[in-house]
Amino acid sequence: MKLFKKVPEMPSDDLSINRISQKTNAVLNVVFLLWSLACVLPLALVVIVSFSSEQSIFQNGYSFFPSEWSLDAYRFFFKLGDQLIRSYGITIFVTVVGTLFSLAITAMFAYVLSRSDYAYNRLFTLLMLFTMLFNGGIVATYMVNTQMLGLGDSVWALILPMSLNAFYVIVLRTFYKSIPLEIIEAARIDGAGEFKTFFSIVLPLSKPGLATIGMFTTIAYWNDWFLGMLYIVDQKKYPVQTLLWSMQNSLEFMKQSSANALEYAEMAANAPTDSGRMALTVLVVLPILLAYPFFQKYFVKGLTVGGVKG
């Protein structure tokens, strides 16, 4: 009595296809590995150069193995003390409040546009698409925000102008359409109103889309320096990106922040250039990199559903 049956041999055509697929996977793995290194190595070089001395950079250029390590670039920027901490606090406040406020507006607006039974669906969709193609320009935007809304030299000038993005509304609206209509109809039959349906059913099912849009919005608020340069006059209200931009482009800011001319002269004489630029990049990029692991699991699903369906 045979305990095991003989496994039928795989046809030669299937074997050849299997070999081809293995070779293809190997090639793709190598390509993806090289691509990943191409993305990671420049960032690693930036971090290493930021810890290099100016003398080693002057002698050997940018190198993964500097001849001399130094913290001078970071010591130089941390001499600002309270100003740097205050700017980080403003940036964190703007990023957190701006992201939550933007998500709330975007989520509700996209949900309304996703409902085909809404009477003004077509009108508001056209108005939203119009803003993607045309805008009033910097002068008109500046006049509206400063004279009509009174946002000049205010932290809210860093939040409100970026609170609604038409592209994010379209992505989230498409994500809402992937939710089965039967669920919403069942909630309506059970007596749930529009707000109850939205907050209790639609939002929990939309976590991947909300996380994706939330991450993009967080990055946009964190990296923004232009609004601070445009609207903020008081240097104590500078977000960290505008502060570092000012430090990189002009030493006049350090002159105004110094206690006296001798301190300014010493700071200007010892100011790092190449390593200082890399240290600035690390100070700006590192905090936002720490947020990626919390949103990574939602990225693929959120972008796939939001970009394919609809």
Automatic annotation (TrEMBL):
Pfam family, one: BPD_transp_1
Entry keyword annotation includes Cell membrane: yes
PROSITE patterns membership: ABC_TM1
InterPro entries: MetI-like, MetI-like_sf
SUPFAM superfamilies: MetI-like
Segments passing through the bilayer: 26-51, 88-111, 123-143, 155-176, 197-222, 278-295
Localisation: Cell membrane
Keywords: Cell membrane, Membrane, Transmembrane, Transmembrane helix, Transport
Family: Belongs to the binding-protein-dependent transport system permease family.
Protein's name in the database: Carbohydrate ABC transporter permease
